[in-house]
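Quick entry, no commentary yet.
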Amino acid sequence: MNKKTLIQETFIGLEVEITEARCKGYIGLKGRIVDETKNTFLLENDRTRRVPKKDVKFRIITSDGRRIEVSGSMLMHRPEDRIKKIG
């Protein structure tokens, strides 16, 4: 799985870590994606936090265990529209 195919997948249920962010408080945050909107991910670990996609770089752990870094700006579409716009 590469970045293009990853972008076309659903992210709910995947583990993610924030590696870069404009807001330094998000860096290092890890969790499982439990919901997604056009502009945010809802991450759950010891608590639930809504994280913006813009200006954030995510390390996503795929279902097969691979780690792929992707810029949140590449993901800023509604989940149901992402395949049409990117594909």
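second:
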Amino acid sequence: MSEPNASHLNKVQIVYFRNLDILRFLAAFMIVIAHTYEGWKGWFGFPSFMCSNNSNAPSLLGKLLEQFIMNLGVGVDVFFLISGFLITYLLIKEKEETGTIHLINFYIRRTLRIWPIYFLIIAITPFLIKITQSPEPDYLSNILFIGNFSMIKSGVWSFPFAHFWSICIEEHFYLIWPFIVLYFPTKRLPVIFFFVIFLSVIYRGYISSIPSENQWMQLYLNSLCRFDVLAIGAFFGYVHYFKPIKFNPEPAIRFMLYVLFILIMCLDPIVLYDNLFLATFKKYFYSIFFVFSMGNYLFNPNALLNFKKKNFIHYLGKVSYGIYMFHNIIIPLVIQFIILRYHLSNFYLYTLITYAISIVIPIIIFELFEKQILKLKVRFEVIRTQR
């Protein structure tokens, strides 16, 4: 395939979705909140403020709050929606404007974005295992980006790779998606997107109908089981490319939907696969809300927190990948080397320390390491993007 034309790169309009970085940060921090809480509960039980009458059992309010916090792990689906949307939008734009997709450039860009931090963590894992006295993880499967399938087989969330499963799924998506966009007629792409969703539904139904020891992990971690959300984001990107989305629902409607969603988050465990419906279709009720929220925040000029200028939250969106990748390592380190060592049995202090370090460390890594590598991405851009 021919290389991108330099004059084309100078003429095309820069692609920039102003609030996308804020969405990235919000998605990452949702997961940080959920895992931070899980870390405390795993070591010390329920925080005292959730319990009633100085007991170890949560009150009704505590149960509602815990359910809400545990459901914040769905931030991973928000990441998948964003990835499907942005990658598909850029691929279609490249194909429509240049007549092709420069696959090598695409994979170099994705490698520069994902691999440095990913393999940095793998490189320091022997040190982390030694100081935390954790079991040896499966290095090879994560080096090969099949760690999600390794965890399905073992049924174990292994430190420090427990959250690498989502990166593996995104890598599997990147492996096939450019070929789909390139070689299928553009006007037929929505059929492909819905076919992927259909396959995901059928496969989850198949898995849920066969009792197995690690059935839950199969439904949660298998790439095909999760590709549907990426495909929904892809359809969103397709629609926006050919007919730019205009979004301005009435404030009262938005308010009611968000209140309803918060209530549901307090009452309903999102990741529950106890029957065929829960394993196959339930997730789409939440996906519809996330698509609505994403559309509202990206394309509604009157959306809440729609900042007119870039600020620190936009910057945190730039380091959100690092926040996601490092937070699950920081949590046990904070517990073992700060909370336990100095007898600081205080949930609020633990939370504050964990949140602060989960932001500061990724910022340092971004400025000293990641940022320098990301500068190389510009050389391989076909469609100019701004962050």
